[in-house]
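Repro:
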Amino acid sequence: MTEKILPTPEKFASCPYDGKILEFYAGQFESVFIILHPFMEPADIEEERFCPEKWPSKIEIIEGCKPISWKQVLTLTGLTKLADVDVGLRTIIGGLRKDLSNHEFSEKLIELDNAGIILPEEGDIPPLLENRILEAIKALGHDWLWVGDEFGTERKLHFIDDLIAGDEIPIHGCIFTHDHSLLVTTHWDSHCSFLCSSKSTLETLLEAEPFEGFFCSENTEVYWGAYEI
C-alpha cells in the first residue's frame, strides 16, 4: 500500500512550525509583522462563560469585552518585557521545553487571570482582532479572502463582508488574498498572529490600524520570547 504523504503546503497559505520566521517565508513574503493577541476584560459577559462549554461567540466577545494590551499587562504584572509575557503564556499551556519555561512569569499571568483578566488563547485569531484585521485588508482594496486550514488541504473563498459578519475562520486557520500578496496565520502554540506581505503594504496597513506588535528581524523565531529577537 502506497504511503500517503501530504504535499508541502504553499508558503502563501501556511505557517512555520519552528525556526526563523523570515527564513521560512523567503521568496514569498518580504516582511512579517507579529500581532500580539490582546488579553480581555469582560464587561457585559459573566466571567463564568469563559470555559470550553460556554465560551462566548465572536460577536459577544467584540461587544462585551475590553481589550487589554501586552504593554498594560507589563504594568499590571511587573513583568519587564514582551518576551516575558510570551514565555509565561507558553509555559501555562506547556508549549515550551522545560529549560525554556519560566514558572515565575506564568504565575504572574495566572494571578491576572484570577483577578478577572482573560488570557489570550493560543493558535487562533482572537475575536477582538479578527474584524479589525479584515477591515484593514479590505481598506487595501481586497474584497475576497481565502480561508484555509493549518495543513493547506482545505480552503474556501469568502467575501470579506461575510467574514466580518460571521465566524468562519477555523482554529489554527489562515486567511490570504487571492493574489497571494498577503497572509494572516497563527501558529498553534502562539498567542500572536503573523501578518505577512511586502514591507510597504504592511506599513500602509499599520498606519490605518496600529496593531500592537513588532516586525520580525532575520533572527526572530516562531518561539520568539524564548530567544533573542
